[in-house]
TrEMBL record:
UniProt region (Disordered), positions on chain: 1140-1166
GO biological process: Golgi vesicle transport
Gene: TRAPPC10
Ranges of biased composition (kind: Low complexity): 1144-1155
A Pfam short name: Foie-gras_1
Species name: Equus caballus
GO cellular component, one term: TRAPPII protein complex
Domain Trafficking protein particle complex subunit: 429-546
Protein name: Trafficking protein particle complex subunit 10
Localization terms from the record: Golgi apparatus
């Protein structure tokens, strides 16, 4: 402090601002201690504890000591913290009581009265002790008396507000201790004042912000208030807290702009909607732009002024925090957001003005960062600044196009006027950059001065941006700048320079599958190729664009017409062909063979039907569509018959082709799925939600560079095959979408034909599909005539007429009328001739051609079969019956096989062990008209029966037992069986003892089910017994008795069932017997349900179910029953109404209500039961067992084993 008694200098808003402390009293005394005080005060840090739970911080206190004046004290409503005195100090070294009473006390009283008048309670009285003055005055009181008087007069309850500083100018331990105590007190009081006044200021500021919805609230006024707080934090070197204040102002203003765009606008925003008249860019070279701050304070700032000033303050604080790269990131976000905010607020901006502002701002930020970082830091952090370089390049390009600096003829008068207006809006260059040779202002002014200067600056910026993007791996951004360069060169009529950039960008987009950039780049490339005269490349690109669905219909038609126009011109030399890939012109979808097996004989006709999807937007007249075919002959191909070839072909003859790869990489479809997760960022202070969004965790896999991969664009070097075998179709019009084209060919030479290449010609332009995949082939065969004989059954049975199928495959032979098959007759096998035998004629595709009557003539030695006429490569099928006679029985032995001949027989007999049938082979020789050699076939017959006899004796009688066993799978009925005496003996009489077999009438089936929810039956648990009684036949003669009843619809008979268990394994619960009325009809079924309880564990046999015929009491046969046919009388006792009560569901049991009537009807005729003869009832459950588990509570386990 040079002149503490002089006038207060004007306030300068720089980082030199410090908290104000006023000094009253002895100014000369303060001047003497000021150097030591200003040096010692910031040396020790103090812990600053703040309100609202904010973390404490260690700060170094500095102060700006000024002379006390009443004008410095804040007035009511003054919110300026920078001019606010935080502490007031009164300095005195009075050591004389008289002097104290005469002058010092009155001066102190006035000083305190002024402070009280302004409600200032932050003060301190410093009494300086000086030993030199003490020695000069001998009549003075001790120093403590003066201090005590001051404390009594002014400090009352705040005695600590008066401190003693002993000999401050000496270098002694006592002096140092005094200084330490004084500095500690001074720092404490300053911190207390900061905390109190800042807290009050923040509360007032918060109250003001909460009134923002009220009419008349001004953002600019609030801006100045919160900036005061930011200035204080900056003054205290708390740059992070100061930055938070500006960030809050930024966010608040941005939210109001967004709400304005949504229709909810604040009145004060109209101040920022005034037209833009100045666009001189950001100003970052001084801490505070006072000019723009005053505009904000006067509410005259435009949107760009506010944003520029706000960002300049943020930039200053970030640089103090040594975060220059965040400056670049925030600057890029600011520039983009300002462009959008101007649109939302509908601010009037002259054309090109915003481009100038963005360009100047980008370069200003870059130069500001370069000024505080060395070259090594800049090179290692290119990723943070390359966005600004790219944005500046883009805006300079826009300005060049706007001002006519890119046109071939240069700018016109209108362009020059526009350039002058833009330069005028920049204003004069600022003083801080006037001496800088490469300032943003000079660069822009120079770039807009001439065509050559613009080209130099634009190319320098573009190449620098591309190099930086490439160095950090941002290939896509580099290619995007390259596209802009290509567009620039195209406007400059230099297509040869533009092609390189376009090809590079297209390769990159194709590798990564960016559909719209691919389309846009191809359009630019087509224009470039057209200017360069690259006919083939231009036609290929035009075909790709004509099939591109991302273009409008008119654009697609234009490029298609370009191809057709070239095809119709005769500028190409005769015979010269331009071969292009077919992928963009048309796509092969499927192919269908007729016949479907893709197998045809020599001379046959094969048709190939293909479906082509035209990609063109208009119908295209194609002169010729051809399929080149490769012919090959395999080894042993003569062995491949039509049947063999057919088995190895697709059944339907349709081959589907995969969708042609789009102009985008197929690898894009195989990329991993997006791994998206929610992201929340919370404030570290109060844990409130700060940011939310979505983050992709596998972005490194999705956005990998694929520069090294092969280009997925269609290669231009497509070769057109010219072979001897070609399928052609001429003059075809391909409509947009699916088209069906049919090729027909006549097979000439046997072999395998592979479809290799598909081509379509439009004038001299040929579209070629170089490889047809998957592999498509058809086969041509030449087949020898064949005869195949097979039985229709699995095995031929001897003694029974059996059918045999004859199949004649004509092959290349044509069967004529009169051709016949000559069969040599076997000794014991006959061919049976029937007049109705017919032969069917089929084509090789099994389509019926015709049928004809088959003539069979047989003699002793030969059987002749006349074949109907049939063309080549057809089949003749017919069936004949053959009969193999069984051999005579063996002359002796206990056991023999029916039909086995003597050992001297000619045929080979085979008799296998067990129950296998004996077989006999008959060989037949067949002479065919197409061969001089005979065909020998062997038919094997099996003997179906085996017989066995035995001689039995009983006293003087002899019994002959004959057993006949059926070994085949067929059912035979044995009838009229008898033994014949071949010796013609008169004394031998054979009497048959076989009675007439009974037919099975009823099928009885029992089934036991475990309780509901259980898997097995358990002892002591009730189980369900279901009895099913099924009638197997209709009305027979044996049914006509007294039990038969006739109704209007059907006959019925009465049966009685009884469930008994002689082995005592089951306890039948409830009804165990009953009478039912069974309809006499096939498959009529009656079911009975009852409950049984297993008494033992193990595999138990099912209870027996007995069935009886229930006869009325007047039956004449009832008295003839034996004892085994009766059951207890009490179960049969019925009253006179029993016949009326019995129906299909009536079930009566022992102990039923009808049994009670037995005592009342004694002596009356009772109904009787008649046992059914053996064979009439089949019990399907006989021998069946069911698993019963022991109960868990049983301690003794009894298991029944049967």
């Amino acid at each position: 402090m040079d002149a503490p008694a002089g006038p207060l200098p004007p306030l300068i808003y720089t980082m030199e601002n410090k908290p104000i402390v006023t000094c009253a009293g002895d100014q000369n005394l303060f001047t003497s201690v000021y150097p030591t005080l200003s040096q010692q005060l910031p040396r020790e840090p103090m812990e600053w504890r703040r309100s609202y739970g904010r973390a404490p911080k260690m700060i170094h206190l500095e102060s700006n000591f000024v002379q006390f004046k009443e004008e410095l004290l804040p007035k009511e409503g003054n919110k300026a913290l920078l001019t606010f005195p935080f502490l007031h100090i009164y300095w005195t070294e009075c050591c004389d009581t008289e002097v104290y009473k005469a002058t010092v006390k009155d001066d102190l009283t006035k000083w305190q009265n002024v402070l009280k008048a302004h409600s200032s309670v932050d003060w301190l009285i410093v009494v300086v002790e000086n030993d030199a003055k003490k020695k000069n005055k001998t009549n003075i009181l001790p120093r403590t008396s003066i201090v005590d008087k001051i404390r009594n007069d002014f400090c009352n309850k705040q005695s600590d507000r008066c401190v003693v500083l002993s000999d401050p100018l000496k270098d002694s331990s006592r002096t140092q201790e005094s200084w330490n105590a004084f500095l500690t007190k001074l720092r404490t009081l300053l911190l207390m004042s900061f905390t109190k006044n800042l807290g009050k200021f923040e509360d007032d500021m918060r109250t003001l912000r909460e009134k923002r919805t009220e009419p008349g609230w001004s953002f600019c006024e609030y801006f100045m208030v919160q900036e005061e707080l930011a200035f204080v934090f900056e003054m205290l070197q708390q740059f992070e807290d100061a930055l938070v204040q500006y960030d809050e102002l930024d966010a608040l203003f941005s939210q109001y702009v967004v709400n304005f765009g949504a229709g909810d606008g604040a009145n004060w925003l109209t101040f920022f909607c005034q037209p833009v008249k100045s666009w001189n860019g950001l100003i970052l070279r001084k801490p505070i732009d006072m000019e723009k701050r005053e505009l904000i304070q006067r509410q005259e700032a435009t949107l760009l002024d506010l944003r520029s000033y706000l960002f300049s303050r943020q930039c200053t604080l970030l640089l103090f925090l040594q975060r220059p790269w965040e400056v670049a990131q925030r600057a890029l976000e600011l520039l983009h957001s300002c462009v959008q905010e101007l649109k939302l607020l509908e601010v009037s901006v002259p054309p090109g003005a915003l481009d100038c502002w963005v360009f100047l701002s980008c370069l200003e930020v870059l130069q500001r960062i370069e000024g505080c970082c060395d070259r090594a830091q800049i090179d290692s952090n290119i990723a943070h600044t390359v966005g600004l370089w790219s944005y500046a390049t883009e805006k300079l390009k826009s300005l060049g196009y706007l001002c006519g600096l890119v046109s071939e003829k240069g700018p016109n008068s209108e362009d020059l006027n526009r350039t002058v207006d833009l330069l005028a809006g920049l204003g004069a260059e600022r003083p801080e950059t006037a001496n800088t040779a490469q300032s943003p202002y000079k660069k822009l002014k120079e770039a807009l001065s001439s065509v050559e200067a613009f080209e130099k600056h634009y190319l320098d910026l573009s190449h620098a941006t591309m190099e930086m993007c490439t160095s950090i791996g941002r290939a896509r951004s580099a290619k995007l700048v390259g596209k802009d360069l290509a567009e620039f060169y195209m406007r400059k009529k230099s297509p040869q320079k533009a092609e390189m950039y376009l090809q590079g960008a297209l390769k990159n987009y194709l590798a990564e599958g960016w559909a719209l950039p691919i389309t846009h780049t191809r359009k630019q490339l087509a224009e470039c190729q057209k200017h360069l005269g690259q006919i083939e490349n231009y036609l290929q690109t035009s075909s790709l664009l004509a099939s591109d669905r991302h273009l409008t219909e008119e654009e697609r038609k234009y490029f298609c017409q370009e191809i057709l126009s070239f095809a119709s011109q005769q500028t190409v030399s005769p015979g010269h062909k331009i071969v292009l890939p077919m992928q963009s012109f048309a796509q092969l979808r499927d192919l269908h063979f007729t016949p479907s097996t893709a197998v045809v004989h020599v001379g046959g006709v094969l048709s190939v039907e293909i479906t082509i999807c035209s990609q063109m937007p208009v119908p295209v007249r194609v002169e010729q569509i051809a399929i080149s075919v490769h012919f090959s002959i395999e080894k042993n191909s003569y062995r491949k018959t039509a049947e063999w070839l057919t088995k190895h072909k697709a059944s339907n003859g349709v081959i589907h082709f995969p969708t042609e790869p789009s102009p985008f990489p197929a690898a894009q479809n195989s990329l991993p799925a997006l791994e998206l997760y929610e992201m929340f960022e919370r404030s570290p202070s109060d844990n409130s939600l700060h940011t939310t969004g979505i983050i992709c965790k596998n972005v490194h896999m999705l956005l990998r560079r694929q520069e090294s991969s092969a280009s997925l664009d269609v290669p231009s070097g497509v070769a057109l095959e010219d072979g001897a075998h070609v399928l052609k179709c001429s003059s075809v019009t391909l409509e947009p979408g699916a088209n069906t084209i049919t090729f027909r060919t006549q097979a000439k030479e046997p072999g395998t034909y592979t479809l290799r290449q598909l081509s379509a010609s439009v004038g001299p332009v040929w579209f070629v599909l170089p490889h047809i995949y998957p592999l498509v082939q058809y086969d041509v065969y030449s087949q020898e005539p064949q005869l195949h004989v097979e039985p229709l059954a699995d095995s031929l049975l001897a003694g029974i007429p059996q059918k045999v199928k004859f199949t004649v495959t004509t092959g290349h032979y044509t069967v004529k009328n009169g051709d016949s098959l000559q069969l040599s007759n076997a000794e014991a096998m006959f061919i049976l001739c029937h007049a109705e035998n017919r032969a069917m004629i089929y084509s090789n595709t099994r389509e019926k051609a015709s049928d004809a009557l088959l003539r069979v003539q047989s003699s002793d030695k030969v059987t002749s079969i006349s074949l109907p006429a049939a063309p080549a490569y057809h089949m003749i099928e017919f069936e004949l019956e053959v009969l193999s006679l069984p051999s005579a029985p063996a002359s002796g032995g206990e056991s023999s096989v029916l039909g086995v001949t003597e050992p001297h027989r000619k045929h080979k007999d085979t008799q296998k062990a067990g129950h296998c049938m004996a077989t006999t082979d008959h060989k037949v020789s067949i002479d065919c008209p197409w061969s001089i050699y005979s065909t020998v076939i062997a038919l094997t017959f099996s003997v179906p029966f085996r017989t066995r006899h035995s001689l039995l004796s009983a006293g003087t009688r002899k019994y002959v037992q004959v057993c006949v066993q059926n070994l085949s799978e067929l059912d035979f009925q044995l009838s009229d069986s008898k033994l014949v005496d071949t010796g013609d003996g008169t004394d031998l009489q054979l009497i048959p003892l076989n009675t007439k077999s009974q037919q099975t009438l009823y099928n009885v089936k029992a089934e036991i089910l475990p309780p509901s929810g259980a898997e097995h039956c358990k002892t002591g648990s009730l189980c369900s017994l279901e009895v099913s009684i099924t009638r197997l036949s209709g009305l027979l003669e044996v049914d006509k008795d007294e039990a038969l009843m006739e109704s209007d619809e059907y006959f019925s008979t009465k049966l009685m069932y009884e469930v008994v268990d002689n082995s005592s394994n089951w306890a039948v619960c409830g009804k165990s017997s009953g009478v039912i009325s069974m309809p006499v009809a096939a498959q009529a079924t009656h079911r009975v349900h009852m409950e049984v309880m297993p008494l033992f564990a193990g595999y138990l046999p099912l209870p027996d179910v007995r069935l009886f015929k229930y006869l009325p009491h007047h039956s004449a046969h009832s008295s003839q029953l034996d004892a085994d046919s009766w059951i207890e009388n009490d179960s049969l006792s019925v009253d006179k109404h029993v016949d009326d009560q019995l129906d299909s569901s009536s079930v009566k049991s022992r102990g039923s209500v009808h049994s009670a009537a037995s005592s009342e009807h004694k002596g009356l005729p009772m109904p009787r039961l008649q046992a059914l003869p053996p064979g009439q009832v089949f019990n399907a459950s006989t021998g069946m067992q069911i698993l019963v588990l022991p109960s868990k509570d049983d301690h003794v386990l009894e298991v029944s084993v049967t």
